Amino acid sequence: MSLPLVSIVTPSYNQAHFLEATIRSVIAQDYPRVEYIIVDGGSTDGSVDVIRQYEEHLAAWVSEPDDGQTDAINKGFAMAHGDILAWLNSDDVYQPCAVSEAVAFLGEHPEVGMVYGDTNFIDEEGRTLGKFNARQTSYQRLRRGGVYIPQPASFWRASLWEAVGPLDPSFYFAMDYDLWVRFAKVAELRYVPRLWANFRVYQNAKSFAADDQCWPEMLRVHRREGGGWFSPFMAKYILRKILASPWNWIKRRRLRMR
Questions:
Q1: Model pTM above 0.85
Q2: Confidence of residue 229 (pLDDT cuts 50, 70, 90)
Q3: Domains of the chain by range and CATH?
Q4: How many CB atoms lie within 10 A of CB 161?
Q5: What is the β-pairing status of strands 34-40 and 112-122?
């Protein structure tokens, strides 16, 4: 019981096709103290049946209408009791030993508020497509638009969440970027080059709209933090806005050809 409790929240809505793989990746972790919470938004595709199959492994679950992913994550963490927190979306999966390695690192580095590892991109069938460009970041790098933190491979102290959380419900895409910026203002974030998660990429995935809708939300964070129009962030913002449509077309075409 001296080991810290890790609370993991999975927000989900009509993701029955992927949800079981997500659940199994959590309950298969070798770390003995995991509090797993699933917040379903009232799915009608059989997700609740999947959840019930694994109910004995869950600390809590709910299926009811909500205001979207951000609201679901906040709702889950409001039920959590862990010393370390993380969320894993219902189409992503952990690698074995991810939780135990993250806990060990935070235990050995009390000065670190959040740790994150590497993440692979995978397709609908779980085949590896590539690797997320994770690297060491900081408040200054985040302010320049360098999003080097893969959300599925991120674990942070509950005390940090209590200090600056919860997620801002006005964000639909960039709620994690907004949270990382707020974390980095008050705590050290540390990158560990270990593969901890897999991020699923497919044609209907929310991430395909990220350049069109995520970067405008990131712009809100930039302005809130005092960023001006003449800055590295704005240069990236304008370039991504120009390239977003053709780049998303290329990604979709590559997925159709696999």
A1: yes
A2: confident
A3: 6-257 (3.90.550.10)
A4: 21
A5: unpaired
